[in-house]
Please model this.
Amino acid sequence: MTTALEDLNARIDAAQAAFEKGRAADPHTRASWLEAAAAGLETDADSLVEIAHEETHLGDARLRGELKRTVFQLRLFAAEIRQGEHLDATIDHADPDWGMGPRPDLRRLNVPIGVVGVFGASNFPFAFSVMGGDSASALAAGCAVVHKAHDGHLNLAVRTAETVIAALDAAGAPSGLFSLVTGRPAAEALVDHPAVKAIGFTGSTAGGRALFDRAAARPEPIPFFGELGGINAVFVTEGAWAARREEILCGYASSFTMGMGQFCTKPGLLFVPRGQTDLVRRVLSGALADFAATQLLSSRLHDGYRQSVARLQSNAGVEVLVEGDFAETPAPTVLHTTAAAVRSDPSILRQEMFGPASLVVEYGDESELPALAELLEGQLTTTVQAEPGDDVSDLAARLTDISGRVLWNGWPTGVTVSYAQHHGGPYPATTSATTSVGTAAIRRFLRPVAYQSFPEARLPEPLQDANGWNVPQRVDGVWRRPVIAEGLPGSEAQR
Amino acid sequence: MTTALEDLNARIDAAQAAFEKGRAADPHTRASWLEAAAAGLETDADSLVEIAHEETHLGDARLRGELKRTVFQLRLFAAEIRQGEHLDATIDHADPDWGMGPRPDLRRLNVPIGVVGVFGASNFPFAFSVMGGDSASALAAGCAVVHKAHDGHLNLAVRTAETVIAALDAAGAPSGLFSLVTGRPAAEALVDHPAVKAIGFTGSTAGGRALFDRAAARPEPIPFFGELGGINAVFVTEGAWAARREEILCGYASSFTMGMGQFCTKPGLLFVPRGQTDLVRRVLSGALADFAATQLLSSRLHDGYRQSVARLQSNAGVEVLVEGDFAETPAPTVLHTTAAAVRSDPSILRQEMFGPASLVVEYGDESELPALAELLEGQLTTTVQAEPGDDVSDLAARLTDISGRVLWNGWPTGVTVSYAQHHGGPYPATTSATTSVGTAAIRRFLRPVAYQSFPEARLPEPLQDANGWNVPQRVDGVWRRPVIAEGLPGSEAQR
Model:
């Protein structure tokens, strides 16, 4: 099932028309479209989860949790655009005494960029796929979306798109605001099409970079918001190791095998003090002994997983610590190496294994950690396991340099959707400094436009002094925010 | 005078060291560095303006005005970072009842990206050059800057850099925070260097695109914030034409010749109703009769100007309306064509003439204007000249699509530095959706980092509940802003 190029072009044309028709919608109307999509997904949850399970081998609880997250995300984004936070409405009144010379009346607003192409990920069939974070944030921004389905869950993608399109239509959204295409030719043509103004992507570094290059090489280059994964290194201080090594190892085992290790936030590296290799092996073996393995997402990913473990294992100084297997439902593998080995070949630290495997690195002295961190490429997350008295300021500074989220005594798997979330990091974690998770993701699909000396009635509502939409406005440098009603959406609890 | 590659590398290394040393500085300390640079430029104004005049042929009043703007900009940015607006500090407290499942404590902050390469522009030797908007915003963000001097005003660039470096040193900024390099090999190596994390550029479309491609092709691609110029079309409605055609033509003549037409915001296209060609010629000829031409910025630009006018003139349907010349101090040229001609060859609308020339396009009916606007490429600005009763909503929507600033009954030359300014536009106006003018320019050189479950004392100050820096914080979705003292900086008047 591959979308013909003429069908792709027709969908992009329809998306452009829907974008133009819908972009003047007020925030409440637009929010109602997101909420309709959310309600549609909830209504069809049973059948969607069943198809998802068949195609991805992910369990019922995981899939229902992921769908819940996807629905929540749509509602949180709806609430965010109702507040008008994303508009960044800024008003500078004319000022004859402005320090550099008289200032005209100047007002700036974020407007949606147009049609967005969104590529679904294999590993989150709901949350990073058809109506996942990229699509939700693009629609929240006021854009139209053409979604490229991931081959790994094609039936689910088609079925989810039907649900979403029916819900959007019933809610009165312009026809064509969201559509789905399949197959590689359509994918490439989507990136090339002049009406497409940005791409959202979650996937492999190789595939993402190829599409990034394609987007940058267009006559009119467009932003490519790619989330290409990462290694997610965890650093255990000597103090933390002494105080709670078994707890840390159990947490690690649980985190790197979660979802069969098929998370972009899987901890792929654990730095621990040297000298207790046997203990590490024993504790990890115990923690993994009862692990209930399931199939990986696809046989292609299974092959890639086996090859990546074999490749890392072939490096000098890398050994097997806990022996897993590569059966249809693979038992987890833990590899082991030393700081000396990675210093002589830092590429050891840069090899992602997409599946239930991870690498333990023994260091000699805690003071080595900042320099070891500098050997890493850009990361989605890094983690410090430390005790209250530990001085890890140098290490924390290095981790801020190389990652988008730094955790303290936690585990990187599990990415909450909230206002402060940042899911991104220096290349190759992502191809931009933006986030693909959380309300800040909406900003990716907006661009600012300034209006100079416009009469009040000609200005977009959010820029009028009358502020009919009741949005936050920065007026002559000072923010004025409307009072928000009790009980912000997003939390089930009464605030 | 060309910087050797080893010297370039040394300056980048010093910049990286200065960045690391300086990035923890509190906003007041960093603001004092910007203010020291501003004061240094003011102190050296007489000698700097003299050198600038020799190298650029721009007049004393213009250069002093530009220097005033440059100094103002540094102080406005200092005030902006004192407020902490740019940090976007966002705090989500742990919430066991968060709608998608328990939320950990998560806090996000914008941090500086590192060393920034800034390319100076030929046409603004102060405001878009050594310590112009790109450098000021990068330093305000907390980055270090390596500036590539423009060959057109090399002595001025070197002298300005000396002033700035002396001022920064005296103010206690880390040594190496700002430096200057010259020559094309250093320019290319600057874009390639792994420690350089972004480029700010103002210049030609061809030169900018080549460097954009270079930045995108790096092993680690970096953002290229390029301002490549534009045509800045002006649309006159039939009503405005009937009411005040002479005033409009005089304003146009004044705007397109300002600074010898060497502004990226020069109005290069004027759409007017057809049928009064003789009147247009007569009024423009009169308005331009007393024009006091001066030399262009350089002989290379002079050659390019002459060629671009000749090229546009060679198009079918394009004629000379007001004959200028290409003397050392060239008299302005106005070309003329029709809507029919540009519809049959839209490339006529896409040829920038960098100098005192512009193109008048006669249309048949006002209803043609939105479709004519769609023939344009991305613009920094577009302008509507209209009367209160005119229905220009379709046109205004198209202009929002294609430009970064839309003006009402004004002229695009003159770009104020303020909170609401947006100086940028769809490609080829700029290579990103950001602005190179105004306080929003600071955001280009920041990236977000989230901290999960960090103990209060380990968090950066702006993310602590105690809020020692007294910056705006979005807490659990609601912004809390410190009260700002009376008299915001930026305006000389008491508010």
